[in-house]
Amino acid sequence: MSNKKKSNEMWGGRFSERAADLLTEINSSIDIDKRLAFEDILGSKAHVEMLAKMRIITKKTETKILNGLKKIEKELLDGDFSFDNLLEDIHMNIESRLGEIIGADAGRIHTARSRNDQVVTDLRLWIRKAIEDIELELSKLQIILLRKAEKNIEIISPGYTHLQVAQPIRFSHHLLAYLEMFGRDVERFKQTKERLNECPLGAAALAGTSFPIDRFYTAKTLGFRAPMRNSMDAVSDRDFVLEFISDAAIAMVHFSRLAEEFILWGSIEFDFISLPDSLVTGSSIMPQKKNPDAAELIRAKTGRVNGALLSLLTVMKGLPLAYAKDMQEDKESVFDVFDTLILVIKISQQLIENMKVKKANMYKAASNGFSIATDLADWFVRDLGMPFREAHALTGKIVEVASKKNIKLNELTLSDLNKVEPKISEEVFKILSPENSIESRNSFGGTASREIRRQIKFWKRRLNA
Ligand code: ARG
């Protein structure tokens, strides 16, 4: 039999019955929050050092506790730590093990502290590190996008609105649009990290403590900007978790859109890219198939992350101050969101890096669908001095003519054009090509090569690439 204290011995002084199995089942969070183990030890170390510095515990006790924590850390690293459901959560699992190692002095670790400030300190530390991991992977992804954009600057592809061919663009322009989105995702995460970087430790259960603690010391030791000003706020809000998940949900929306484009582009109907064999699957019945499962799952996993956001928004809504056990439900979402997002970023890196772009097919599609009709209308405005509305109507008529003949705009003859508008001259043919259309769109942020190169230059500097 283990001589571990059961959870009701940790808090059960006034209880005459042991916890029902069902209570343990609903109450225990160790299977999930064991991922906070190292942050929990970090927080405990800072707390214990502070207690000794303020002479709330002796130097000797401090050393004893710190050695015990070091041993636990090693057990955790070696996978030798045994987690116990009856000890509810990571905090009590560690404290209980500390008791086994150093005896009754272990109980001094919880002086001037509650699990309420402990858990939220751990979680802030964990998310802070998680955000750093996410930032790193997102920046790798951005560099991959940047290189792909630079390499494919000559490739012309159709730009869409309503998924109808709209105007020709450079394929790089399309890729760089995602680079911008992921750039904002990085910014959002950075700002969240900045905002959450305040220390709740020392808020104790909710009201602070009567011990002469130094919250500035623990905050500094743990790398937080400052201690949180209000002890009730410190233990009771999870807005930083909501922000983290919101940031992830927005990023996932971006990834799902990119994934959807991969799926479309990789289809026979589009045939713009081929996805790497390593990231597609075959069909068990149709030998010809290459299914974009990885991209489909990226698209689908957006649902889990959105779900996590809604779940925690719902948990937090209407909770009276300060701490309530409801908040224990936050961690499962946090970990799942993090794992999902990291996986999605890494797979997207590979999809982008290894996709093969089919230049001729993209070009063909970019020339279809009267994609240069706007250029024709603009020519009427510029060269014939027409108001744009009139030019638009006239171009519409010409598109109709070409459509009936089943040819492209630049395959019409001058006499075809003159039947609709006698003032049109030979000059017009100079502008009726996808290349010309693209290069003419040289307004800031447009798709002309000069503007694309400006964007590439910007991102090279920003990403230090
Ligand atoms: N496991 C708990 C959580 O995740 C820790 C805080 C418990 N506090 C308490 N007073 N029961 O929120």
As residue ranges, the low-confidence spans are: 1-5
The CATH homologous superfamily of the largest domain is named: Fumarase/aspartase (Central domain)
Class inferred from helices and paired strands: mainly alpha
Helix content: 55-70%
Shape: elongated
User: How many structural domains are formed by the residues?
Assistant: 3
Count of helices? 19
Mean pLDDT: 95
Our measurement of the CA-to-CA distance between the termini, rounded to an integer number of angstroms, reads 59 Å
For the sheet with most strands, the description reads: 2 strands, antiparallel
What would you say this structure looks like, in words?
This protein has about 475 residues and is mainly α. The chain has 3 domains: about 5-110, Orthogonal Bundle (Fumarase C, Chain B, domain 1); about 115-215 and about 225-365, Up-down Bundle (Fumarase C, Chain A, domain 2); about 365-465, Ribonucleotide Reductase Protein R1, domain 1 (Orthogonal Bundle), CATH 1.10.40. The protein is built from 19 helices and 6 strands. The strands form 3 sheets. A two-stranded antiparallel ribbon has the order 1-2. Strands 3-4 form a two-stranded parallel sheet. A two-stranded antiparallel sheet has the order 5-6. Arginine binds near residues 33, 325 and 328.
